[in-house]
Amino acid sequence: MNDHHCDIALTVNGEPVSERVEARKTLVDFLRDDLALTGTHIGCEHGFCGACTVRVNGEIIRGCLMLAVQCDGAAVETIEGLSDSGEIADLQAAFERRNALQCGFCTPGVLATAQDLLKRGGVPDRATIRAHLSGNYCRCTGYHAIVDAIESVAEARAEGRAKGGSS
Amino acid sequence: MKIAEDNPPVLSALDRPNSYIGRSVSRPNIKRLAQGRGQYVSDVMLPRMAHVAFVRSPHAHARIKKIETDAARKSAGVIAVVTGAGLAKVITPWVGVLTHLKGLKSAPQNAMAIDRACWQGEAVCAVVARTRAEAEDACELVEIDYEPLPAATDMETALDPNTPVIQPSLGDNLCFERKLDAGEVDKAFAESDAIVETTFIFGRHTGVTNEARSIVADWNPGDQRMTVYQGTQAPHMMQNLFAKHLGIAEHQVRVVTKDVGGSFGIKVHCYADEMATVALAKLLKRPVKFVADRIESFVTDIHARDHRIKAKIGVKKDGTITAFEIDDLTGVGPYSMYPRTSGIEANQIVGLVGGAYKCPNYRAQARVVFQNKNVMCQYRAVGHPIATAVTEALVEMAAAKIGIDPLEIRRRNLVPDDGYPCAAPSGLKFERLSHHESLAHLDAMMNYAGLRAEQKKLRAHGIYRGIGFASFIEVTNPSAAFYGVGGAKITSQDGATVKLDAQGSIIVQSGVTEQGQGAESVLAQVVASSFGIAIDRVRVITGDTDNTPYGGGTWASRAAGIGGEAAWQAGKALRANVLAVAASILQAKPDDLDIRSGIVVDKANGTERLPLEELARIAYFRPDTLPDGIQAELIATRHYVPRQWPFAFTNGVQASYLEVDIDTGFVKLLKHWCVEDCGTVINPQLVDEQIRGGIVQGIGGALFEHCRYDERGQLLNGNMADYLVPMAAEMPDIEIGHVVTPTADSELGAKGAGEAGTAGAPGCVMNAINDALRPLGAKPLTDMPFTPDKILRALGKV
What we know:
Low-confidence stretches of chain A: none
CATH class of the largest domain in chain A: Alpha Beta
Largest interface: A-B, 64 and 64 residues
Radius of gyration of chain A: 17 Å
Strand content of chain B: 15-25%
Strand order of the largest sheet of chain B: 3-5-1-13-10-11-12
CATH architecture of the largest domain in chain B: 2-Layer Sandwich
Largest sheet of chain B: 7 strands, mixed
Shape of chain B: globular
Shape of chain A: globular
Low-confidence stretches of chain B: 1-11
Mean pLDDT of chain B: 96
CATH class of the largest domain in chain B: Alpha Beta
CATH superfamily of the largest domain in chain A: Beta-grasp domain
Number of strands of chain A: 5
Structural class of chain A: alpha+beta
Number of strands of chain B: 30
Order of helices and strands of chain A: EEHEEEHHHHH
CATH topology of the largest domain in chain A: Ubiquitin-like (UB roll)
CATH superfamily of the largest domain in chain B: Aldehyde oxidase/xanthine dehydrogenase, molybdopterin binding domain
Distance between the termini of chain A: 47 Å
Number of domains of chain B: 3
Distance between the termini of chain B: 44 Å
Strand order of the largest sheet of chain A: 2-1-5-3-4
Oligomer: heterodimer
CATH topology of the largest domain in chain B: Aldehyde Oxidoreductase, domain 4
Number of helices of chain B: 19
C-alpha cells in the first residue's frame, strides 16, 4: 500500500492546500507532518482519546479515524484556525482563568468539542457538558475545571444574546 | 463560574508588599497551550531527522535464536536495522538498585534484549527510517526466531521452588524484602475486643499520559555533543544517565524539556527504548525520534500498584485501635526499574500504613518479586494509595464491627494536632500535621449529618448510597534520604538563578520542571514577591540542562516546596544586590530601601526613588557613573534542600458520596470532598486543581483501571477502548478545603500538593462502596478495581 498516493485539494483554516498524500495517511498525520500544524495532537490513534479532534465541514471528527484522502474538497479547521479567527477567544480566556488545562495536550480537542456544544446555544447543565465531553480524555484536571469554564462561557454567551449582542 | 478561594493565610515572613503568595494568578504558559502553540517533544522536527520503530517481543519470556534483517534493510526509506547486540557496542547496560534498600537486587538490563526477551513488549530490534510509517513497514519484515520459555507471571508462586528463575544470576525471583515489627503486636491483638482480617488486591495500572513517551536525540559529531529533547520530569537525572551509558561526559549532554503532555511519575524513569534511541543517534550521527504509540505505552510505560496485601487490625470496644499488621506481596516485572528501583513502592507502603494514627503496635512484611510482565515503578503518590486504602478500610471495617461512626473512630485514634513532632511506628518522622482540624473542616464542608440522614431515607426506597472517608499522610519535599543516600545521582537539592535584564525585568532559571502543574507560575509568584516586581515582568525558564541550575526536576511534590524555596531565596539575594547598587546611586543605605512593584522605594514610607529600568540602564550602560568599587551584580543564584526533616509530610482527609445500583453493579459518583494541608498555599487555584486531578486519577484505580494479564504474561487490554480511564461523564464535582500548617524547614513553608488527591481517593471510594452495601450483607469489596461484576458477586447476584 505504501506506493499508493492520491492528490487532494482542500482548505485548512481557510487556506487552500493541494498535496499528494499516501492513501493510508490519516488526517491528523497529514495536518501534523505535512502541514506542520502541530496544535492537533495524537493521543491514542484509535479514536478513543479525542486529542486529535478537528472540525471538517463544520462537524467535529477524530483526526486519527479519518484519512487525509477523505478530506479532498473539504474545509478542515484546527486549533490554529479556531484561535486565529477569534471564534473561541472567550472559551480560551475562560479556560485560562479557570486553569481548565494543565499539560494542555488534550486542550485543542477539548476546545473544539466544547465549541461544538456551545454553538448549539442555550446553557447546558453540568451533566450535559460532561456527557458532551465524554469522548475527550484529560488525565490532568479531573474535568471539574473544564466543566466550570464551559459553563461560564455558555452563561456569558446566553447573556450576550439576551442583550442583543453577538455570541 | 467558580473562582478558587483567594484568601491568603497570615504569613508574617512572607507578607511582603504586593505579595503574590496565596493568590490565584494565571499560569504564564497557559495561553500558549490553550492556543495549541505548545512545543511538545512529539512536535519536534529537525533537519535530517530519522524515525525509529521497534520490533517488540510478542512473548513474555523467550530466547532469541536468530534475527533476520535483510528484507527489512531493503525496505523503502530504511536507514538502519540494529539488533540488541549491535546497540550494545554503543551503550552499556544498567542495574536498578539502591544501596539503602538493603538486599534489593536486579540483573543488568540492556537497551534492547540481546539473547532473551523477558516481557511482552521488550524491544528486540530497532528499525530506523525516513518516516515512522516506513520504519513500521520494515519492522514487519524483520524475522525473529524465538524459542518461548516458561513465563513466571503469578506473584503468588514467584518464590516457589518449581517456578523458573527469571534472572538466573540472581539465584531466585526475590527482588527486595522488608520486615518491620514495632511495639507489641501479638499482645495488642490478644487484648483486642474485635479483630478484622482481610486481603486487599490492587490492580496493576499505569499512567496513560495523553502524550506518549517521546524523545528526539541529536548527536552532533562536530562538537561531540548529544542534545536530547525529551518529555521527562528530571532532565539532570537523564543527562547523567545518557552520559554514563554512552561513555561521554555530562557536559557533552544537553537535555531539553519543553512542554510535556502529562507525566504523573511515568516520565521520571530511564526507559530502555529511550536509551536505545539516544544510542541510535550516536551510532547514526543524526537526529533520531521515537514516540511511543499507544500500544507500546501500555506494554512499556511503567505499571504500578500491583499488590496483594493481607491485613489485620485490632480494636477495643471504646474504639481504640490496638494494632495493625500487613503482609504485602508485589510483582514488579523482570527488572528493578532504573535508577529509582522497583522497591520504593513496597517500602513506602510498609512505612505509611497506620501512620496517621496513635497506635504504636505495627508489624509489616513486604516482598517484591520478579515476573515476566512489564516493569513496575513509581507512579503518582507512590505506595500512598495502597497504604491509605488498606489502613482506612481496616479502620472503617473495625468501626463497623464495634458499631461506632467512621468519623468518630478517627477522632479517637488520629494523632492529636498538638501531638507533634512525633514518629510513626515505622520510624517516619512528622514535623506537624493537622488530622483533627482537617476532619472537622471536612465534616462541616460536606454536611455529614445531613448526608447520613439522606442516606437513611433513601435506603428505605431501595436506593443504596454510601459515604466513605480516607485520612491520609503524604510524603513531599524529599531530602537526600530518598535516593541520594542510596547512590543514585538524583539530586534532592534544587537551584534558581534570578537576574535583572537590561530593561529592569526579571529572568528566573530553575532546575524544577513544568508538566502543567504550574511550577513556572509558582516560581514567578515567589520571585515576584521576594524581589518586589509585578509578575508580568518575570519570565521563567525551566527544562534545559544547559540553561538552568542543577536540580532534581519535578516529582514527589517537590517543585513548589524545594524549587520554590530556592527561587524565593534567589529573589531575596537579587533584591539585596540591586539595593546595594541603588544605595550607591541614591546615596542612601541599602537597609533603608526596598523594591516594590518594580521601583526602588524608601522602605519606611514607600516614596518612589528609582525605577528598575533606570537602575538597569545605569548598571549596564553607564557603569562608569557608579562610584569606584561598586560593581553591580544583577544576578543571584541560590540552592535549597530540606535539612531538618528527611521528608515534609502533608496530610488531609477525603470523602466520597456515591450510589450503587444493586441491579447492575454500577457505581455513580455523586460528590467528592478533600481537605488538604500542604503548608503554605502559594496559588490556591493551582493547589485545588492538582488535588482534583489527583483525586480523579485515584478514582481511576478504584473503579476502572487495570492492566489485565493472562497466565502467559500477555497484556489483554493494551488499548484505550479496553483499558478504561476516568472520563468526564462519570466523574463527580470535587470540593476542596484547606488547612494551612507551613513547614518550618523553609521560609516559604510550602510542602507539596501534587499527589495528595491520588493518595486518598481509592480508599475513600472503597469505603463508600462498602458503606453503601453494608445493609445488604455484602462481603466487603477489597479487590480493586471495583467493576460492576465484582459488586454483583459481592451481592450474590451472579
